[in-house]
Amino acid sequence: MRDKISSSPVLSVVSKILFAPIIIFGLYVQFHGDYGPGGGFQAGVIVAAAFILYSMIFGLSKGETLVPIMINRYLMCIGVLLYAGVGIVSIFLDGMYLDYNVLSSDPSTGQHIGIILVELGVGITVATVMIALYHSFASFGEINE
Amino acid sequence: MFDIFLDDAPALVVVLPLLISAIIAFMPSKIWPWIFSIITLLLHLFLSLHLLKEISVSGLIIYEFGNWEPPWGISFKIDGVNIGLQLLFSIFVLVSTFYSRKIFLNEIDYRDSGKAYSLWLLAVGSLNGIILTNDIFNLFVFLEISALASISLIALGAGQNRKALLAAFNYLIIGAIGATFYVIGVGFAYAMTGTLNMNDLVIQLAQYSDGQLAIFAGMSFMLIGLMVKAAIFPVHIWLPPAYSYAPSAVSTLLAALATKTILYFFVRLLYEVFIIYPSYLSLFLDFVLYPLSLLAIFIGTVIAIYQDDIKKLLAFSSIAQIGYITLAFSLKDHSGVASGFVHIFNHALIKGGLFMAVGYFAILYKDRVTLNSLKGFGYKYPITSFALLICGLSLIGLPLTNGFISKLYLFQALYTNQMYFSIALVAVSSALAVVYFWKIVEQMWFSEIKFKSEKEDAYIYLPIWIVTISIIVFGIYSTPIIEFSNLSADYLISGYQN
Predict the structure, then answer these.
(1) Cα-to-chain-centroid distance, residue B31
(2) By the CB < 8 Å criterion, does B11 face chain A?
(3) Cα B244 vs. chain centroid, distance in angstroms?
(4) What is the pLDDT of residues A105-122, one digit of tens each?
(5) Secondary structure element (H or E) that encloses residue B78, with its range
(6) Where residue B209 falls among pLDDT bands split at 50, 70, 90?
(7) Do B117 and B24 form a contact (C-beta atoms < 8 A)?
């Protein structure tokens, strides 16, 4: 169950080729979210799709060596902390919670910095949660067997 | 330095628990998650007290997130309606967290305690968000966070009884249906008015004459969704299994506060927003909420009588007690709304105390507490048993307990509205409450077998007694609760009479 690797060489070669472009597309959506359609949620799911594809083709154990469970768990929390941390920093700088204007001397730059950091937090958490969901559901059969 | 934080107290009471919950999830599962939770909740209480001080001066705080002005940005609103609930919430959460440590040690794997407290703080933060938010979509987000956190907490009861998983799954499905109904309603309202802010919604809704079907459909969807979440009678079925199979500490938190916060928002939506359609409002209150409340009171009490499992008995009695609260809210006048708030406060303390005591019994008995298993507990564990007795008497509504104050104000409100049938029904169901509570007392004190008293854990019975003493204190000196409730009713009803 765990290491039922796809026998087809086509699948493994294609997925190897696709892995990097998927992540780059994810990053594009992530940073494009600042001034256009896109953002953390979508980017997180796209990046997670690359890792899930890898796990599907090469087996769960290899997927778990690529993204160890503990690191994945830490990253979930770090994403949340990054988001909330931006809010706390803006309180320290004498603004309202999540007031990006105070992050820089120029309010417009402040908005850019704020939204990029917050979206990055969202992206990290969404990607790692998606991976964790896939791994926990995919390893579900092991307990019952 | 400290002032910076005090200015942002409305945001921090929600953000702080959510933030710390992400940090706790990292921690090795020893005592640290609990210590961090306690420190967080002490700060939370301090911030709530600060908010009380601010409100007593200014009367209204609008906190704008990210400095975006209200109709566009998300805002929190603190005024006379929710400050009392905020304070109760803050205090009760702290007490139940003190209580929770030993209970969690016994009921769930100690390696899970980091996760458990992470979820616990997540539930606390999101429930607090429901109390403060002034944005109908933001409320949906908090509803979802609190539902997911409490579902996972309920599922932690699976170590004790596998049925917890089924209960959690039921809650997940039914809760999701409720939330979907609510968000469909929000969609209708947003499509018609283009706003999500509650104050702005009132202004925007006023431009539509009394015949917009889309608005009424949206309002109905929202109210029904919230009714599912608040476990108002015919849509309550998720509640009894969820409360009874959850770990005891979780039952305490949920039974005391989760439905109460949603009931608060329910009444706020009714009397602050939907008030601009008086005919729709009185239709809903008179022909939906009022009969359902009466049914809830009667059926909840009767089912509770036939329960053998004590936690289930308490859960069904909660259905009846929620019925009392909604009955009071359906009265459309100051006395009714005030008595509803009085019962929200009092019932939170009573049911919290009862679930705490029964949770301790479950640990001592090492199994689910049924009527039979309570034999002789009154002699075996006198300290906790006596607390349970006082909480139970308060549930029935005996004088010198805060339950009596609730009943008194409810009767008064019903009497001024000349609802004699309801008075009779409430009286009958109070009498029936004596039946189910007497069954417990009989087993505990009047069984044949006599036991020697055994040692009880002070870490557990102290929080139970804090709640019990507050029940007696508010039974004798009820001014604070009455004041807060009247304040809430003043704010809400002033809109109704305009």
Answers:
(1) 28
(2) yes
(3) 16
(4) 888 888 888 888 999 999
(5) strand B75-79
(6) low
(7) yes
Q: List pLDDT tens digits, range B45-92.
A: 999 999 999 888 888 889 988 888 888 889 999 988 889 999 999 999
Phi, psi of B60 (to 5 degrees): -155, 130
Q: Residue A9: how many CB atoms within 10 A of its CB?
A: 8
Distances in whole angstroms, Cα of residue B389 to Cα of each of B187, B303, B376, B440: 47, 21, 14, 9
A95: contact with B, CB 8 A cutoff: yes
Instruction: Quote the minimal CA–CA distance from B496 to chain A in Å.
Output: 33
Give the Cα separation of B444 and B357 in Å (integer): 13
Tokens representing B298 are: 């009667």
What number is the ipTM of this complex? Answer: 0.87
| Residue bearing the bigger pLDDT, A43 or B498 | A43
Please, which residues 49-108 of chain B have a Cβ atom closer than 8 Å to chain A?
63-67
Inter-chain contact B66–A98, Cβ cutoff 8 Å?
yes
In this structure, what is the dihedral angle of CA atoms B353, B250, B120, B61, given to the nearest 10 degrees? Answer: -50
- How far apart are alpha carbons B125 and B411 in whole angstroms? 35
Residue B308 φ then ψ, to 5°: -95, -35
DSSP classification of residue B76: E
Q: What is the mean pLDDT of residues B170-190?
A: 94
B26 to chain A, closest Cα gap in Å: 7
Mean pLDDT, residues B402-428 = 91
A104 CB near a chain B CB, below 8 Å?
A: no
**How far does the CA of residue A78 sit from the closest CA of chain B (Å)?**
8
Claim: this prediction has a pTM higher than 0.90: yes
Is A73's Cβ below 8 Å from some Cβ in B?
yes
Compare CB distances from B11 to A74, A77, A97 and report the shortest one's residue. A97
Q: For B319-338, how does the pLDDT look when each residue is reduced to its tens digit (9 = 90+)?
A: 999 999 999 999 888 899 99
Domain boundaries, chain B: 278-498
Q: Is the pLDDT of residue A1 over 60?
A: no
